Automatic annotation (TrEMBL):
<feature type="domain" description="YvbJ-like NTF2-like">
    <location>
        <begin position="295"/>
        <end position="416"/>
    </location>
</feature>
<dbReference type="InterPro" id="IPR054530">
    <property type="entry name" value="TcaA_4th"/>
</dbReference>
<dbReference type="GO" id="GO:0005886">
    <property type="term" value="C:plasma membrane"/>
</dbReference>
<feature type="domain" description="TcaA 4th">
    <location>
        <begin position="214"/>
        <end position="276"/>
    </location>
</feature>
<protein>
    <recommendedName>
        <fullName>PEGA domain-containing protein</fullName>
    </recommendedName>
</protein>
<dbReference type="Pfam" id="PF22820">
    <property type="entry name" value="TcaA_3rd_4th"/>
</dbReference>
<dbReference type="Pfam" id="PF22813">
    <property type="entry name" value="TcaA_2nd"/>
</dbReference>
<dbReference type="InterPro" id="IPR054529">
    <property type="entry name" value="TcaA_2nd"/>
</dbReference>
<feature type="domain" description="TcaA second">
    <location>
        <begin position="35"/>
        <end position="134"/>
    </location>
</feature>
<dbReference type="InterPro" id="IPR056902">
    <property type="entry name" value="NTF2_YvbJ"/>
</dbReference>
<dbReference type="Pfam" id="PF25155">
    <property type="entry name" value="NTF2_YvbJ"/>
</dbReference>
Length: 432
């Protein structure tokens, strides 16, 4: 009986020893740091984000790690062999230092990557050291070249870039891939640029992210300083003047510019062109064909009336002439009458050069135009006190006429000899 009890006792003891040994090896297996790294590497190599997610504890900020984060890590390390090797190497080094008690892994360890090893405070079964993987969270400095730009993270506003250094501390963010956009609402257009942030640092800090905005200042010129500037079809409330600088604005061709000028005879619009440089120059054809004809006809009417007025020595016969010039000629005719001076003559032919027409705008509502004309005529002067009546002598003269737009009409207020100026072939001719 004693022998039987002894056998039972020995068997129980042996079982207990075997169980203890088994539990030891089981505990050692469950807490084996090498196995943890193998599972980590396997989940990367086999593209298993769910398996990887099961290895992560909460982040260093205490936030739960979501599947999207695990997917991003699997995708990144699965495609970048050197990065995966660097992370595994650092994890092995961390666990070795944790095992011999020479260090405590934490977010203050500058050598740790975005994923790091952490020794749990409680031992497994009160005996075995147990390890887990944790993720760092990062503050990412975002810079842009325009202070006041809105910084968007995956479509949601993360903050405003500072006016001074134009830098925003964005986060904290877990490792992953993010879409970061800078949006600057300028006075004339909105500048935008979106970049991808691959946040997988191999250290305790994230590199600054630059989101450059392509905006320039554009100098606008026109032959009409009163022309208004339009961006993308919208009047921006500025005129060209001596040269207008506008911006910032994208010069990649995504915006358009044109100018418009208002005249009494209508609005003239330039061609609309993409903004692809820092200078835009426009030449407005302010004079329509109809307006050119009106100017030429007015100049001819004055020239023809000149001969009639001299024959009659009467300034009232003048047509399309400024009141000041009419007064000047009235004084001249009075002198002719007083001196018994007479004139015989007539206009035989007049030719006006359309291509010589030039418009000058003195202010927002004061317009003048110049045009060249060649007159063929015959004339002679004589005094009534003498019986001699001379025959008219043929002559030709090229004259520059300056006309002013006044109350809906073009009137001549200045003329001068143009010497040997040559007319183009684009002329309008009048007989008499």
């Amino acid at each position: 009986m004693t022998s039987k009890k002894m056998k039972i006792t020995i068997g129980a003891a042996a079982f207990a020893v075997l169980a203890a040994v088994g539990l030891y090896f089981l505990g050692n297996y469950l807490t084996d740091e090498q196995r943890l790294l193998e599972r980590f590497e396997s989940s990367i190599d086999n593209g298993q984000p769910d398996k990887l997610l099961s290895l992560f504890a909460a982040s260093d900020e205490g936030a739960a790690v979501e599947r999207a984060t695990a997917e991003a890590i699997v995708s990144y390390l699965g495609a970048d062999g050197p990065a995966k090797h660097a992370v595994l190497s650092r994890l092995k080094s961390e666990i070795a230092r944790l095992s011999d008690g020479s260090a405590e892994a934490s977010t203050n360890d500058g050598e740790s990557a975005f994923v790091y090893a952490h020794k749990k405070e409680k031992k497994r079964w009160f005996v075995f050291d147990d390890y887990e993987l944790k993720l760092r969270s990062y503050k990412v400095p975002v810079t842009t070249n325009f202070g006041g730009a809105r910084i968007m993270l995956n479509g949601e506003e993360a903050g405003i870039a500072g006016v001074g250094g134009s830098t925003l501390q964005m986060g904290p963010l877990l490792p992953g891939k993010y879409k970061v956009k800078a949006v600057y609402a300028g006075k004339y257009t909105t500048l935008e640029n979106e970049v991808e942030l691959a946040l997988f640092p191999l250290g305790s800090t994230a590199h600054p992210l630059e989101v450059p905005l392509k905006g320039e200042y554009v100098d606008v010129f026109s032959n009409n300083g009163f022309a208004r500037i339009f961006i993308n079809g919208e009047d921006i409330g500025l005129s060209v003047e001596e040269g207008q600088r506008i911006g910032p604005i994208a010069t990649d061709g995504s915006n358009t510019i044109h100018v418009e000028a208002d005249y009494p005879w209508g609005t003239v619009k330039s061609e609309e062109r993409p903004i692809d440089g820092t200078r835009a120059e426009f030449k407005l054809s302010a004079l329509t064909d109809e307006t050119k004809e009106q100017i030429v006809d007015a100049a001819h009417a004055f020239a023809a009336s000149w001969y009639e007025a001299f024959r009659e020595r009467d300034a009232e016969r003048l047509r399309n002439v400024h009141s000041d010039r009419k007064a000047d000629l009235a004084s001249h005719f009075a002198d002719m009458v007083a001196g018994d001076e007479h004139y015989i003559g007539k206009l035989k032919r007049a030719v006006f050069d359309r291509d010589s027409l030039r418009l000058d705008q003195l202010d927002a509502s004061d317009y003048s135009a110049t045009v060249l004309g060649r007159l063929d005529y015959e004339e002679a002067y004589y005094y009534g006190a003498f019986d001699f009546r001379p025959d008219p002598v043929a002559g030709s003269q090229t004259i520059s006429y300056r006309l002013r737009y006044d109350n809906g009409k073009w009137i001549v207020y200045e003329w001068s000899d143009a010497g040997s100026a040559v007319l183009s072939s684009n002329v309008k001719s009048y007989e008499g």
